[in-house]
Every structure is written in C-alpha cells, then in structure tokens.
Amino acid sequence: MTGIDQVFRELNDEARESFLTIVTEEVLRRRPDIEPQLNQYLSRLGWTLVDGAIIPVELFDPRELAELPTEPRHDLVKAAQRFRDGDLSGAISAACGAVDKVTAQIYVTSNLGDPGAASFQERCRNALAARGVTPALEHQLSQLGWDAADITPFKKNFEGALNQGAYVMQSLRSKMGDVHGTKPILKPLVFDCMKWVELVVRALNEP
Fold first, then answer.
1. CA 52 to CA 196: how far, in whole Å?
2. Taking a C-beta distance cutoff of 8 angstroms, is the pair 14, 87 a contact?
C-alpha cells in the first residue's frame, strides 16, 4: 500500500482520475452489494453508476438511460466511459452506434428496406417518421391545450432540430470518429454529439 500511495502521489490529475475510476469499477465488480452506498458517495462528486460503469452526471441522466433498451444503453454507457477516459473519437463512434442499433431495428420492424443503403441522417429521419414521433408530440401538445397556431411552427422546428442534429452527428462521426489521433478533435463538439445522440435515441424510444 505504501508503494501504491507513492506512485499515486506522483500521478498528474488526469492519470489519478483514470486510476480511481478503474479501481472503483473493479471493486464494484467484485462487491456489487456496495453499489447503493458507492453511488451516493459518487453523486456528491458529480459522478454516477450505470450498469457498473462510472460516468459523469453531466453526460447522461441515469434515470433516462434506464428507460432505454439494453443495446443502445450499453453503447451510450460505453461512449461515456470513453469520453471520461479521454478517448474522444471512440466516444463519438460508440454514441453513434447507439443510433445505428435503434434505427436498424426500426428499419426491420417498419419494412423500410436496407438501413445500410441510407446515410446516417436519412436513417434518423426515416426512423423518426416511421415511429410517428412528430404526430405523437403534436397530439400531446394539443392535449396540454396548445393552439394549432403554436403547435405547427413548434413541430416544424422540432423536426428541423432533430434532422440538423443527425447531420451534426453524421459529420462528426465522419471527421472525428475513430481517428486514433490522426485528426484534431474538439472536446466540446464530442460532448454535444453525445447529447444529440441521447435526444434522438430517446425520441425513437418513445411509444
């Protein structure tokens, strides 16, 4: 323990954070019974536990992640871990992989054809249309008492925002995803990409 303490003190802040997250995840893997107490401590420091992984609270709300299907949730957690560990290109790829899985499933269930034949943006647009996301939102807003004059421009802008978000994700995946240090990456844009992915995945998961 003395030797470990000495090495730990010599690490820089980034390396210390990485070391602590890895050790904590390993402890949790061996002692899953301590998760509630550990999660309480981590929440005070801006972290949370999702599927045994420690991720920053600022990235994803664990309550919303819990409502997602297993496969896209797994990809989002993986993306958060990679973002946490500084693998920004890997974070983009894992996050967009969550959208791939959801849209591919919708393509199958809705008989939309081969998802591989469409661009990322087209897949998102087609999947959102097949799921009836906008009509459902329109109905919900109407139930809340919104007037048609307010719903129409809101609906149009909401559709546009999701479509533009898909373009942003598509572009970042192409230019920054899995480049392994060969191209420059902007961390704030990676963060934005992950939030867009969460928004699209949640929209596609709505009944």
1. 24
2. no
